[in-house]
Structure formats: structure tokens, C-alpha cells
From TrEMBL:
Classification via Pfam families: BPD_transp_2 (PF02653)
Spans traversing the lipid bilayer: 68-88, 100-120, 127-144, 150-171, 178-198, 218-239, 260-278, 284-302, 330-354, 366-382, 389-407, 413-432
Organism: Kitasatospora kazusensis
Keywords per UniProt: Cell inner membrane, Cell membrane, Membrane, Sugar transport, Transmembrane, Transmembrane helix, Transport
Membrane topology: Multi-pass membrane protein
Cell membrane found in the keyword field: yes
Keyword 4Fe-4S recorded: no
InterPro entries in alphabetical order: ABC_transp_permease
The protein, known as: Xylose transport system permease protein XylH
Location(s), subcellular: Cell membrane
Biased composition (Basic and acidic residues): 10-19
Amino acid sequence: MTDDGSTPRPGDHDRHLPEDFMSTDGVNAAVPVAAQATPAVDPRLIVRQEGVAGYFKEFRRRLGSGELGSLPVVLALIVIWAVFGSLNSSFLSAQNLSNLSQQIVGTGMIAIGVVFVLLLGEIDLSVGSVSGLCGAIYAVLEVTHGVNQWVALLGALAGGAVVGLIQGLFFAKVGVPAFVVTLAGNLAWNGLMLQILGANGTVNLSGHDIVSRLYSTIYGQTAAAYGLALACVLLFLAAAVQEARRRQRAGVPYRPMSDIAMRTGVLAVIAFLTAYTLNQYKGLPLALLIFLIFIVVLDFVLRRTSYGRQIFALGGNIEGARRAGINISWIRISVFMIASTMAAVGGLFLAAQIQSASQTSGGGNLLMNCIAAAVIGGTSLFGGRGKTWSALLGALVIGSIQSGMNIEGLSNAIQFMVTGAVLLAAVVIDSLSRRTQKAAGRA
């Protein structure tokens, strides 16, 4: 029944579905009702009618229809922590987990940019080289040429944005496939980094510069970590209540207070447990705080702005997006600029982590780890589905594997094989999930 007591017509609910629950195939409208798959029901409506039982009913329905969300990566993270924690108690120590929260920031920042590109159904193979290039730009400007550290920082970020602009233009305007453009960029930007570093090949940071302080600063006051946890919970609660009231006034399905309270409670447990763990060692790392700010802000951009909706629309159905009047070229160029700028941010944190910019910066398995973090965290390789939080979850999985194996003294060869297996499992789960959703009429 609708809010005015009338019986809803077939398809009425489709007009009120949020983007997360809308079909993207555009086919069902021309198919007789009897031949269509069972229509999706907004979970807000189920929970409002059936209470907490409706929430679990909707959860089971989503699992049955292949809408797994972040569940696989959360379960994988629990298993990884349980295994390594049982093998060595130091893995779950406050010191190791605190160090882990700092070490994943560089890779996680780059992975956020990768998420944006993957949402278009494209790939960026240059983010590793771009991170090394921008780290070198900052180090050479600040250390070698004595440029003001803030100017050097802005120069490095601007360098990343320019790289994204160049690659985006070749992709969007010239029509060169993103794979080819960024593969060429991977080589070219690495060569430019070597040229900037010069014959010496390594520029050491002083440790007192702005980038080093952003990475190494830790707020030792107990109130800092707990205050951040409280702020996150209250912000989430306020946003959820405001959204529910807005949807209620508009006459569309909304989350009841019982559902909002349950979600807020889960977030509170996670937030305050994290704060407690950090306070058991040194406190709240500034790098982690900055990482979370980037995630929240860019998540807002993706889910709450017309620009973000255009990215999802383009990744889900490019022809439909074109017919809707979306500026395809602008979206593509801007997304590659975001990816390269985030690669620059990540490169600066990685340079601060090792206190230098060298010929090996941005190399090794960094590129694969960044792409793997985005995919393992739940971003689809097929485009149109993902969140910035995927970068955090994926980086945690990869960082936990590396940390646990280092503690156990296992070789890099074993780490590569395990990480590769986890990445393959994530892609397989994504493929099976899409197949199940199509069978259920949800994709």
C-alpha cells in the first residue's frame, strides 16, 4: 500500500528507487509484467513495514540476488586478522595495527583515484609512475632548489592534475583507449621522474618539511581519537536523520529510526574500538585522519552530487548517458585528473614514509597494489559500481597480508602469490555477483 492508502501500480516503486537499487539495462520497460523478473523493493519500505525483521529479510534478499556489497571484503579481513593473530599475537597488537593505519595511507590515497576510473569501466596504469613523479617534483623543489615547502607541495599536486589532463584529453578527445594512453604514460612519467631526479637519483627529505610532518604527526591526547570517533558517529547520525526526513517529506520510502539506530550503533562500536586501539599505542595518526577526510569528501561527491551521479551513469551505460545530455568528454577528462591528483597525494605520503624520493619511487608492485586495493574493496572492474570506502577496505586487506607475512618472515614471493590469489577471488566474486543480479533482473 502507498502512503495515501491506494494500491501501487506495477512499476510505481521504480520511480522512487534510489540510484543504488535502479536497474541499468533499460530493457524491462518494454517487457510484459508477467515476463519480468520479480520487481525490486526499496529496503526502506520493507524495514518501515516490518521493523528489524524486515531489515534481515532485505539482507537475505540482497545476498540471494548477488548484491553482496562490502560483505566479502569484510569477511576476508576478519579471516586474515584471525589467521595472523593466531599465528603471532603481535599482529593484533596496538603498535602493529597503529603502524598499519599509517602504512596504508599512501596506497589507499592512490586507490581512491583508481576507484573513480574503474567506475567509468576504464583503467589507469600510470598512477604508480605519477605518484613517483610528483614525489620527485616536491623533493627537488623543496630540498634541491629551496622552494617554499607549501609552493613545492602545490607544485607536486598541480603536476598530478596536469598529467591527468593530458591523458584525459588523449582518451576523451583523440579516442586513444585508456589502457594504451596510461600504459604509455606509465613509461613516460617514470622517465620524466628519472630526469628530474638527475644523476644522483635520490633526494632525501629533511623530516621537518610539511609532507613529512603530515605523515609522522600523531596526536597523543586520548581525547583526539575518541573525539574523532564521536564526531564520525554524530555526523553519520545527523546525515541519516536528515536524509530520512527529506525523503519522508517527499513521500518516498525512507529508513525508520530503528534502522538508523542500528547502523549508528554498529558504526559507534567500530569507531570507538579503533580509537581505543590507537590510544593503546601512541594515539591518532594525522595521516589516517587526512585519509578518512579524503574518503568522506569524495564519497559525498560521488553519492550526493550531480557530478557523481553522472560518473555512475557513464560507467553503467555510456549510450544512455549520452542520450541524457551528459558531457561525456568532460566527465572522462575530470575523472582522469582526479585519479592523477590522488596519485600525487599518495606519492607524497609514500615519499614521507621512506623520507626520500628515489629512482624506485612509484615502481615495484605499487601499481598492482593500488588497483588490487580498489577491486578487492568492492569496486567493479565492469564499471558503474563502487565507493571510495573500497580503497580503505582493500588497502587494509593488502596491508594486513603484507604485515602478517612480514611478521612471519615469509618472502615477497609468497606475498605476491597470496595477494594475487585474493585479487583473483575478488574479481571472480564480482563476476558471479553480476551474473546473479542479471538472473534476478537487478543488473
